[in-house]
Amino acid sequence: MAALGALGAAGCTRVATASTEDGGDLLDRLKAAGVVRLGIAGEIPFGYIDKNGDLTGEAPELARVIFKRLGVDRVQPVPTEFGSLIPGLNSQQFDVVAAGMYVNPERCEQVIFSDPDYQMLDSFIVRKGNPKGLHDYKDVVEKKAKFATGTGYAEIQYAVEAGYKESDILIVPDQVAGLNAVEAGRVDVFAGTALTTREVVKKSGKAEATKAFTPLVGGKPHVDGGAFAFRPTETKLRDAFNVELHKLKKSGELFRILKPFGFTEAEMTDLTAKELCGG
């Protein structure tokens, strides 16, 4: 936590401002500075500071590779809460959101996304043995389970769509806090990505992750995709990022970068930001 605080303070220095002309000039500014500031949310395995105080996670490691190819040698973390990532990006506290953020229509009205580097289903953290038999959002509603999820998580929408009252949802900072809430009995279930839940429960003696499932949006199964977010004016940077991302997908190097963080081949994707933004 001390490392997070120190890094957060360091990250509040001025960043390169965006130009509204010809897709922005941020990439040129980043090349000149030699460093890009990444907004992260301290969420394992997407983007976090490890026990040695080093920046890691699937998004920062992918960012290192892509920005190196774009001529920017260093990445610098700016830790914040998940719900502050988009406001922080648009207020220029950092240059790019590198937090495995889901692409959805609401967020697409505020930022522009790269194409997703992974796809993901949902899963629950429940007490060992899953005593209430919670396997999807419908179960949570029908069994009147005490429900929690993270700040700004897409899972809020999925629970509400299933009929759960939003004001009854316990919002916690991250998946670790969600695990603690389940273990302490404050809630029956915490909802997150399948990858996040299966990783965070590995050392728990009181909780387990349920089998991954597909949430419903508009009554239809919905698969999420996580991507990097950019300010709306910076289309040049986003497009250049996408070119390198697709090269990594084609070569198989993308999977090699993400695999150490628990990603499987089933979580690689050809989804596009356009699809997930709603066309």
TrEMBL record:
The Solute-binding protein family 3/N-terminal domain, residue ranges: 35-265
Keywords: Signal
SMART domains, alphabetized: PBPb
Family matches, as InterPro entries: Ectoine_EhuB, Solute-binding_3/MltF_N
Cross-referenced Pfam families: SBP_bac_3
Top-level taxon: Bacteria
Gene3D superfamilies: Periplasmic binding protein-like II (3.40.190.10)
UniProt protein name: Ectoine/hydroxyectoine ABC transporter substrate-binding protein EhuB
Organism: Streptomyces shaanxiensis
Gene (name only): ehuB
